[in-house]
Specification:
Layout: H1 2-9, H2 17-32, H3 41-48, H4 59-74, H5 82-99
Helix pairs in contact: 2-4, 4-5
């Protein structure tokens, strides 16, 4: 128990996160898959209304959005997780249905 208290009470390493993880968030979204930027809820709503937005429900979108969200939250950015969770569910269900 003392070891955990020492680890979590040490705040010296928490200031390093924004400097190292924020550029990775930008790199992942800008160069690997730019359509993954944003929450993704409008794309899901468009798909439910019958409009196909190419690249919005792909596994690449899921991986990039998840990685960027992890980097953004880890670096201390004020990022919400509700909208990406909607996209995670819709992409996983769409991928499952399309492979069957």
């Amino acid at each position: 128990m003392e070891i955990l208290q020492k680890i979590f009470s040490n705040n010296k390493s928490s200031n390093i996160g924004p400097f190292f993880l924020f550029p990775y968030t930008l790199y992942v979204l800008q160069f690997i898959h730019p359509p993954a930027a944003g929450g993704g809820t409008p794309e899901v709503m468009a798909f439910l209304n019958g409009i196909i937005v190419h690249g919005s429900l792909s596994l690449k979108n899921l991986v990039v959005k998840f990685t960027a969200n992890v980097f953004a939250v880890s670096s201390g950015l004020p990022a919400a997780i509700q909208a990406p969770i909607i996209t995670y569910g819709s992409v996983s269900l769409h991928s499952t249905v399309c492979t069957i």
